[in-house]
Amino acid sequence: MTITYREGTIEDSYAVFQVFVKTIMDYSERMNVMGITGGNDPEVMKSLWERRKSMFEFLARTASHFWVAEQDGVIVAYARSMEHDGLIELTEFFVSPLQQSGGLGRQLLARAFPQTDSPFRTIIATLDERALARYLKAGVYARFPLKYFYRQAEKVDFNTDLLIEPMQQKIHIDKMNQIDKQILGHSRPVVHEWIATTRDGFVYKRGGEIVGYGYAGSSSGPFALLDENDFPAVLAHAESLVAETGGEFGVETPLINKKAIQYFLDRKYQIDSFTALFMSNVPFGKFENYLCFSPEFFM
Fold it and tell me: What does the alpha-carbon distance between residue 234 and residue 1 come to, in Å, rounded to a whole number?
């Protein structure tokens, strides 16, 4: 059967979500990890789509490169990337299990993750060997693993000299951009604008100056702090907020963020079986000062 390629649109969002689910479920079975809890239950998938629809549509609207592969008019694979302030990030690259051969992936990746003038190229990757081989050929290399730490949220007492305020993006975005430049090497105001519609945002001040930001809710992150020693207090605040809803608190964590990990270990957090790798063309950033967006489609 002939495979054709075309640029994706926001109208493809549900179709590419289905490709994502099929691919992750297949990967989970092969790797003996839990990619999507209850992924074979149609009601679970309906609920998951309702939660993820906003993100898939955001990724479609803001993609710099978005390509789908079709067979007989049905999308069987897709890939897309976003570009911000000198960084191109491959947000997704998913090929349906029955199509993972014959050069389809290579063709998609070349279209969705091209060589550009951006000095930084990044991917958050699974441990799938076939995909990893393609990423390595694309010139990105593993810098550190990412793990999801989680637990039933509880109110946590903490002492800090930080002043914690609700985020007001129109007022705070310039300083947040500066923090992102220091920690991540690029700014991304469009991403912050969307994240703030999905969870509660906060800024952390010391001496009247913003020294970090974070987001907490049913899904949490990212968190970026100029001083990594502030993570215990910031995480205690976020966990306490989620505890008020009776929910679970969890964060996608670079395994080089010692201060956050120590907090999680002290609080007896569980570690999810799913592992991802942060890959880049060159080392950059201060990821010991950072916790990622969850789910980990992008930094």
Answer: 53
Element (H, E) at 263: helix 258-266
Q: How far is CA 24 from CA 57, 201, 206, 253, 274, in A?
A: 19, 29, 42, 20, 11
How many domains does the structure of the chain reveal?
2
User: CB neighbours (10 Å) of residue 279?
Assistant: 21
| CA nearest neighbour of 218 among 156, 295, 158, 296 | 295
Same domain, 177 and 240: yes
Report yes or no: 292 and 223 within 8 Å, Cβ to Cβ: no
Residue 260 class from Cβ within 10 Å (0-12 exposed, 13-18 middle, 19+ buried)? Answer: buried
By the 8 A CB rule, do 293 and 252 touch? yes
pLDDT number for residue 103: 82
The set of long-range contacts for 37-43, using a CB threshold of 8 Å and a minimum separation of 24, is: none
Counting Cα atoms < 13 Å in the Cβ hemisphere of 245 gives 13
Domain containing 113 equals: 3-139
Q: How far apart are CA 165 and CA 49, in angstroms?
A: 32
Longest dimension (CA), the chain: 64
Same domain, 13 and 121: yes
Residue 114 shares a structural domain with residue 153: no
Residue 24 and residue 253: Cα distance in Å, rounded? 20
Of the three residues 116, 139, 162, the one that is the final residue of a domain is 139
Q: pLDDT tens digits, residue range 174-226?
A: 999 999 999 999 999 999 999 999 999 999 999 999 999 999 999 999 999 99
Provide the strand spans (E) within 45-140. 65-71, 74-84, 87-95, 120-125
